């Protein structure tokens, strides 16, 4: 009779473990979906911002331009009300590296505002891509990014991609 009980406990434990394994898959799917939503929000904000800053609105009447601006502001406001957040678990070294990488990017952004050439911006971006970059790479920045958590590396890369696109877009207008 004791053997039956232990088999039953083992079965019960096995079922609970299987349940937890299924829940883990669902948690990962939830995190991926939320991360995709974060990226979609960033993309929408960038697109709205680009439309707001287009120079070709000179070719429309004042009334149409005002309507376009009001619609863009309304969409921007509604998009900003969406809060999606996926927190990344970091060790102290990864936290320090993320802070350092963010400071380096912010420094480049501030320089970029003064000079829209963006050559250093490309150096930082080259440090984030896994493929062989087409130009030189900022080795110091690359070593800082490598020490960040994987999720943070992806966010840093997306931030730099957005920065590069915005730089290109500002040159085209």
From TrEMBL:
<dbReference type="InterPro" id="IPR037689">
    <property type="entry name" value="BAG2"/>
</dbReference>
<dbReference type="InterPro" id="IPR003103">
    <property type="entry name" value="BAG_domain"/>
</dbReference>
<feature type="domain" description="BAG">
    <location>
        <begin position="97"/>
        <end position="166"/>
    </location>
</feature>
<feature type="coiled-coil region">
    <location>
        <begin position="13"/>
        <end position="54"/>
    </location>
</feature>
<protein>
    <submittedName>
        <fullName>BAG family molecular chaperone regulator 2</fullName>
    </submittedName>
</protein>
<keyword id="KW-0175">Coiled coil</keyword>
